[in-house]
Amino acid sequence: MDKLRVFKSGDEDSDGLSVEDYPSQEVAVRVQLQRAIEEERYDEAALLRDSLQQLQQRYQDAAAKSGADLAGSAGQQRFYIGQRVEHRELGYRAVVYGWDSDCCENEKWKASADVPSLQHGEKQTFYHVLVDARDWPADSGDAPVPVAYVAHEKLYAPQWPSTWVSERGPDDFKNLMRSILFLGDDENGDLIPTRALRDRLKQQRRDVFPPPPP
Length: 214
Prior knowledge:
alpha+beta, 2 domains, two-stranded antiparallel ribbon, DNA binding, Hemimethylated DNA-binding domain-containing protein, Clp_protease_adapter_ClpF
Protein backbone atom coordinates (compact mmCIF):
# COMPACT_ATOMS: atom_id res chain seq x y z
CA MET A 1 0.00 0.00 0.00
CA ASP A 2 1.20 3.51 -0.78
CA LYS A 3 1.99 5.85 2.06
CA LEU A 4 -0.31 8.85 2.25
CA ARG A 5 1.99 11.23 4.11
CA VAL A 6 3.49 14.70 4.00
CA PHE A 7 7.00 13.94 5.25
CA LYS A 8 9.25 11.11 4.13
CA SER A 9 12.84 10.16 4.81
CA GLY A 10 15.92 9.50 2.73
CA ASP A 11 19.32 11.09 2.15
CA GLU A 12 19.16 14.27 4.22
CA ASP A 13 20.64 17.73 3.89
CA SER A 14 22.17 19.64 6.80
CA ASP A 15 18.69 20.58 8.09
CA GLY A 16 17.38 17.01 8.06
CA LEU A 17 15.36 17.20 4.84
CA SER A 18 15.86 14.79 1.95
CA VAL A 19 15.45 15.75 -1.71
CA GLU A 20 12.13 13.94 -1.95
CA ASP A 21 10.84 15.74 1.17
CA TYR A 22 10.89 19.16 -0.44
CA PRO A 23 7.75 19.07 -2.65
CA SER A 24 5.59 18.00 0.29
CA GLN A 25 7.34 20.41 2.66
CA GLU A 26 6.65 23.20 0.17
CA VAL A 27 2.96 22.23 0.12
CA ALA A 28 2.83 22.46 3.93
CA VAL A 29 4.46 25.91 4.00
CA ARG A 30 2.18 27.21 1.24
CA VAL A 31 -0.89 26.07 3.20
CA GLN A 32 0.36 27.94 6.29
CA LEU A 33 1.07 31.01 4.15
CA GLN A 34 -2.40 30.96 2.60
CA ARG A 35 -4.05 30.69 6.01
CA ALA A 36 -1.93 33.52 7.44
CA ILE A 37 -2.98 35.80 4.56
CA GLU A 38 -6.66 34.88 4.88
CA GLU A 39 -6.53 35.57 8.63
CA GLU A 40 -4.63 38.84 8.04
CA ARG A 41 -1.60 37.71 10.03
CA TYR A 42 0.68 39.62 7.69
CA ASP A 43 3.84 39.59 9.82
CA GLU A 44 3.66 35.80 9.95
CA ALA A 45 2.87 35.67 6.23
CA ALA A 46 6.04 37.65 5.48
CA LEU A 47 8.12 35.20 7.50
CA LEU A 48 6.48 32.27 5.72
CA ARG A 49 7.25 33.81 2.32
CA ASP A 50 10.90 34.07 3.36
CA SER A 51 10.81 30.46 4.54
CA LEU A 52 9.31 29.37 1.23
CA GLN A 53 12.05 31.11 -0.76
CA GLN A 54 14.72 29.55 1.44
CA LEU A 55 13.11 26.14 1.07
CA GLN A 56 13.05 26.43 -2.72
CA GLN A 57 16.75 27.38 -2.76
CA ARG A 58 17.62 24.48 -0.45
CA TYR A 59 15.67 22.17 -2.78
CA GLN A 60 17.75 23.26 -5.75
CA ASP A 61 20.99 22.94 -3.76
CA ALA A 62 20.10 19.53 -2.35
CA ALA A 63 19.07 18.23 -5.76
CA ALA A 64 22.32 19.43 -7.32
CA LYS A 65 24.31 17.81 -4.51
CA SER A 66 22.52 14.47 -4.82
CA GLY A 67 22.37 14.50 -8.62
CA ALA A 68 18.57 14.26 -8.57
CA ASP A 69 16.72 14.89 -11.83
CA LEU A 70 14.03 17.47 -10.99
CA ALA A 71 12.18 17.08 -14.27
CA GLY A 72 12.45 13.32 -14.74
CA SER A 73 14.40 11.46 -17.39
CA ALA A 74 14.12 12.90 -20.87
CA GLY A 75 12.08 10.64 -23.13
CA GLN A 76 10.64 8.60 -20.26
CA GLN A 77 6.88 8.30 -20.59
CA ARG A 78 5.20 9.92 -17.60
CA PHE A 79 2.16 11.83 -16.52
CA TYR A 80 2.40 15.62 -16.59
CA ILE A 81 1.90 18.21 -13.87
CA GLY A 82 -1.77 18.99 -13.43
CA GLN A 83 -2.90 15.68 -14.92
CA ARG A 84 -5.83 14.03 -13.15
CA VAL A 85 -5.08 10.44 -12.17
CA GLU A 86 -6.65 7.64 -10.17
CA HIS A 87 -4.95 4.97 -8.05
CA ARG A 88 -5.53 1.62 -9.75
CA GLU A 89 -5.89 -0.30 -6.47
CA LEU A 90 -7.02 2.16 -3.81
CA GLY A 91 -9.29 4.14 -6.11
CA TYR A 92 -8.50 7.61 -4.83
CA ARG A 93 -8.50 10.57 -7.24
CA ALA A 94 -5.42 12.77 -7.40
CA VAL A 95 -3.50 15.31 -9.44
CA VAL A 96 0.23 15.24 -10.26
CA TYR A 97 2.37 18.08 -8.90
CA GLY A 98 5.87 16.58 -9.16
CA TRP A 99 7.88 13.42 -9.73
CA ASP A 100 11.21 11.63 -9.35
CA SER A 101 12.69 9.60 -12.20
CA ASP A 102 12.90 6.63 -9.80
CA CYS A 103 12.00 6.00 -6.16
CA CYS A 104 14.00 8.29 -3.86
CA GLU A 105 12.84 6.76 -0.59
CA ASN A 106 15.02 4.77 1.81
CA GLU A 107 14.93 0.98 2.07
CA LYS A 108 12.61 0.96 5.10
CA TRP A 109 9.98 3.02 3.25
CA LYS A 110 10.32 0.89 0.10
CA ALA A 111 9.73 -2.26 2.15
CA SER A 112 6.71 -0.82 3.98
CA ALA A 113 5.22 0.35 0.66
CA ASP A 114 5.95 -3.05 -0.92
CA VAL A 115 7.99 -1.47 -3.72
CA PRO A 116 10.00 -4.68 -4.43
CA SER A 117 6.76 -6.43 -5.47
CA LEU A 118 5.99 -3.87 -8.18
CA GLN A 119 6.36 -5.07 -11.74
CA HIS A 120 8.95 -2.38 -12.47
CA GLY A 121 10.24 -2.07 -8.92
CA GLU A 122 11.84 1.19 -7.88
CA LYS A 123 13.25 1.96 -11.35
CA GLN A 124 10.21 3.81 -12.64
CA THR A 125 8.81 7.30 -12.21
CA PHE A 126 7.36 7.99 -8.75
CA TYR A 127 4.87 10.85 -8.53
CA HIS A 128 4.06 13.42 -5.89
CA VAL A 129 0.29 13.77 -6.04
CA LEU A 130 -2.33 15.82 -4.24
CA VAL A 131 -5.15 13.49 -3.20
CA ASP A 132 -8.78 14.57 -3.54
CA ALA A 133 -9.96 15.42 -0.02
CA ARG A 134 -13.19 13.50 -0.66
CA ASP A 135 -11.14 10.31 -0.91
CA TRP A 136 -8.96 11.09 2.13
CA PRO A 137 -9.78 9.04 5.28
CA ALA A 138 -11.14 11.47 7.86
CA ASP A 139 -9.62 9.49 10.72
CA SER A 140 -6.15 9.17 9.14
CA GLY A 141 -4.58 11.37 11.85
CA ASP A 142 -2.24 12.73 9.17
CA ALA A 143 -1.62 16.27 7.94
CA PRO A 144 -4.65 18.24 6.66
CA VAL A 145 -3.31 18.35 3.08
CA PRO A 146 -3.52 14.82 1.67
CA VAL A 147 -0.56 13.92 -0.54
CA ALA A 148 0.92 10.64 -1.72
CA TYR A 149 4.09 9.29 -3.36
CA VAL A 150 3.08 6.70 -5.96
CA ALA A 151 4.70 4.50 -8.61
CA HIS A 152 3.77 5.09 -12.25
CA GLU A 153 2.32 1.62 -12.70
CA LYS A 154 -0.18 2.18 -9.89
CA LEU A 155 -1.76 5.25 -11.48
CA TYR A 156 -4.36 5.43 -14.23
CA ALA A 157 -5.18 8.41 -16.45
CA PRO A 158 -7.33 8.57 -19.60
CA GLN A 159 -5.34 8.45 -22.82
CA TRP A 160 -6.15 10.79 -25.69
CA PRO A 161 -8.66 11.08 -27.29
CA SER A 162 -10.33 10.11 -24.01
CA THR A 163 -10.10 12.73 -21.27
CA TRP A 164 -10.97 12.95 -17.57
CA VAL A 165 -14.15 14.86 -18.45
CA SER A 166 -15.20 12.46 -21.22
CA GLU A 167 -14.80 9.47 -18.88
CA ARG A 168 -15.89 10.98 -15.55
CA GLY A 169 -17.92 14.04 -16.43
CA PRO A 170 -17.47 17.33 -14.52
CA ASP A 171 -15.54 16.53 -11.35
CA ASP A 172 -14.30 19.45 -9.25
CA PHE A 173 -11.02 18.43 -7.57
CA LYS A 174 -10.95 19.14 -3.82
CA ASN A 175 -7.70 19.93 -2.00
CA LEU A 176 -6.53 22.90 0.09
CA MET A 177 -3.52 23.35 -2.20
CA ARG A 178 -5.50 23.44 -5.44
CA SER A 179 -5.73 27.25 -5.65
CA ILE A 180 -2.07 27.68 -4.64
CA LEU A 181 -0.42 25.28 -7.08
CA PHE A 182 -2.96 25.49 -9.91
CA LEU A 183 -4.78 28.27 -11.78
CA GLY A 184 -7.95 26.36 -12.68
CA ASP A 185 -9.22 23.58 -14.96
CA ASP A 186 -8.76 23.10 -18.68
CA GLU A 187 -11.38 21.66 -21.03
CA ASN A 188 -10.14 18.11 -20.46
CA GLY A 189 -10.62 18.32 -16.69
CA ASP A 190 -6.90 18.53 -15.89
CA LEU A 191 -5.53 21.34 -13.73
CA ILE A 192 -3.43 24.25 -15.01
CA PRO A 193 -0.20 24.60 -12.99
CA THR A 194 1.09 27.98 -11.88
CA ARG A 195 4.12 29.40 -13.62
CA ALA A 196 6.20 28.88 -10.46
CA LEU A 197 5.38 25.16 -10.46
CA ARG A 198 6.04 24.84 -14.21
CA ASP A 199 9.34 26.66 -13.95
CA ARG A 200 10.52 24.51 -11.03
CA LEU A 201 9.94 21.36 -13.08
CA LYS A 202 11.00 22.93 -16.40
CA GLN A 203 7.64 22.21 -18.03
CA GLN A 204 5.69 24.07 -20.71
CA ARG A 205 2.09 25.18 -20.27
CA ARG A 206 -0.23 22.73 -22.01
CA ASP A 207 -3.79 23.55 -20.91
CA VAL A 208 -6.71 23.20 -23.33
CA PHE A 209 -9.62 25.65 -23.48
CA PRO A 210 -12.93 25.48 -25.40
CA PRO A 211 -12.84 27.18 -28.81
CA PRO A 212 -14.29 30.71 -28.92
CA PRO A 213 -17.95 30.95 -29.96
CA PRO A 214 -18.54 31.61 -33.69
